[in-house]
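Bug #77: duplicate submission created two jobs. Keeping one. Sequence:
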Amino acid sequence: MVEAEPTQRLRRYLGATVIPAWPMAQPTEPSEATWTESSADALQSEPANSTERRRSGEDLPVHRKAPPVTQPLRDLNAVQPPPRAANATFHKLFLYLTQTPSELPPRYGSWFTRDDADVACVSWKSAAEPCTFIGKSTWTEGRNWLWQMAVRGPRRYKYYVFLDDDARPGTGTWRDFERALLKYEPALASSLCHVTPAEPLPGLDAQTISHWDGMITAFHHEVLSDHLVLPYFDGDDSFSWFYSQLAMMHVGAILWPANTLQINTLRLKNKLHRKYKKVRSACGANKVCDSRRLWQTQAFNPEFARGREVAKGVSFPPAYKNASYVLSADQKRRWLAPNTTYWRHIRSTVDCYLHHAADVQHCLRRRSFRGIRT
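Kept job's structure:
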């Protein structure tokens, strides 16, 4: 059987969903919503052996959430979780998204194909079901294709978890990670790994972070609506694949410093270290290169960003979600610097992936990757 073209397979996945221009409207409600906020609370409070007990029909105890901890960030205090909206529904709670050379690793099926999680994938070396084959691409382009599938797809999930295909639990489980997501409802979250900028604070199952390993990042569904932290910034891929994740981390940690978390109950490990563009020698010791770190100098109004940026390795106790992560028009006007090169490039990325889905790669090639025009 002849392998279907990427765009044909993408259309089969996307159906007839239409995505308007930035800012994106809220996703349409799925026709068969099987998870509600109360379902998420039940999962978060389950003990380790709850799956078997739930199948047997035994009633599960409800665990009260831990009391909040006030954190020493300016104007950002941890608060009690707000009342949940009764009509918030999802197809499932978690969508795991990964890119792989060809076939999806078998362990992904056993890990993430269950009643509260799905998995989506793209492949870049050879075509293999069930992944969408996108051909030769950078790490950033693969992640952005997955983002496109998430926002254009007809199914809605509470969390979208982007994960490298070689990552696997060292200590803790995926359930531990998911329980922490449902407990605190962070805007962005990662886990411990072999290189962790912020060591776990004693006695805490989560803590704030501003830098982390991009092998895993979980995004709350509200974060995807504004196209601010996603899509990834691909303007520096010609000389380094590090910068796309640095831009995402910087924007997320500035917007939601108390709700960008490191989950301490899961530590991931990975054995594969593929060759990719890191930082060329011409960049010098500061590794600034051509990009001039546009996300640091152009993403925000200086008055807003001042005092919100947290140094690498500095961490505080976590906060519960107490407001929507969707920015209002007034917040965007006061906080962002939308007419800069950085945001123009992000908007052009959104346009390529969401409005030229039939020819994304041609759309991307039209742009300059060597020295973003300022």
